Amino acid sequence: MSLTADPTHPRALALRSAYARAVDRLVLLAQGLDPEGAATPVPATPGWSAHDLLAHLAGAATDVVSGRMDGAPGPAWTARHVAEGSSRTTAALAAQLADAAAAVPDGVYGSASPTPVWDLIVHEADLLEALGRPRQPEDAWRALLAHTVRHLGAVRGAEGVLVTTENRWALGPAGAHVRLDADDYELARVVYSRRSRRQVGALTDAPGPVESLQVFGLRDDDLPA
């Protein structure tokens, strides 16, 4: 089900802008990584280093443009990106990402379901947290969070209202109010399965409904926050 199939819809345009800015930031970050930084483990993607994650992002963008999406978004697809980029420098991966991102089809931005555009924005935050860098600019995660809440409400039949310290997020026409003792950025990280069961439980007295909203399932390993 597509809620924003029109790539000129304001939500799609916001996501397109957020993606372009995220690509620019990732290119600069990759170009500036030394070997030690490139080897930094990324807790959100167990077994991957910062270099591996950049290889995946460059490979995913390239595949979107070329239409090579067989197996996406499964582990064999992402493992291929890591393998193909293993011998390339982070600067070369940055150049590959920049070239491919500039040619991503407009229709990708209109999709209401997860796409490599979503993937890149979520993984930028993964990389920044792993490297101990400041958060993404708000336009990146907020544009994606708005898309995701609509996706969850429509596709999963979610109900109720999720209340953060900043906003009330309506998931469906009925159901209980669930409070999350965190801001909208943390909600985004929870929704994209970037916080563990323990971390979610520390933020709400109703972890069950919140856990059911985690797009990529529950995890037991704590991540940097």
Keyword list:
225 residues; mainly alpha; isomerase activity; MDMPI_metal-binding; Maleylpyruvate isomerase N-terminal domain-containing protein
Tell me roughly what share of residues is in helical segments.
40-55%
Overall form? globular
- Approximate strand percentage: under 5%
Tell me the series of helices and strands, N- to C-terminal.
HHHHHHHHEEEHHH
Q: For the largest beta sheet, what order do the strands appear in spatially?
A: 2-1-3
According to DSSP, the number of beta strands is: 3
C-alpha-based Rg, rounded:
17 Å
Q: Kindly name the structural category.
A: mainly alpha
Summarize the main sheet.
Answer: 3 strands, mixed
Calculate the terminal CA-CA distance, rounded to whole Å: 33 Å
Low-confidence stretches: none
What's the mean pLDDT score? 89
Secondary structure tally, helices? 11
User: How many discrete domains?
Assistant: 2
Characterization of the model:
It is a single chain. This protein folds into 2 domains: about 10-130; about 155-210, no CATH class. Helices cover about 55% and strands about 5% of the residues. It is built from 11 helices and 3 strands, in the order H-H-H-H-H-H-H-H-E-E-E-H-H-H. It has a 3-stranded mixed β-sheet, with no helix packed on it. A hairpin with a 4-residue loop joins strand 1 (about 160-165) and strand 2 (about 170). Helix 1 (about 10-30) packs across helix 7 (about 115-130) and helix 3 (about 50-65) runs antiparallel to helix 7. The mean pLDDT is about 90.
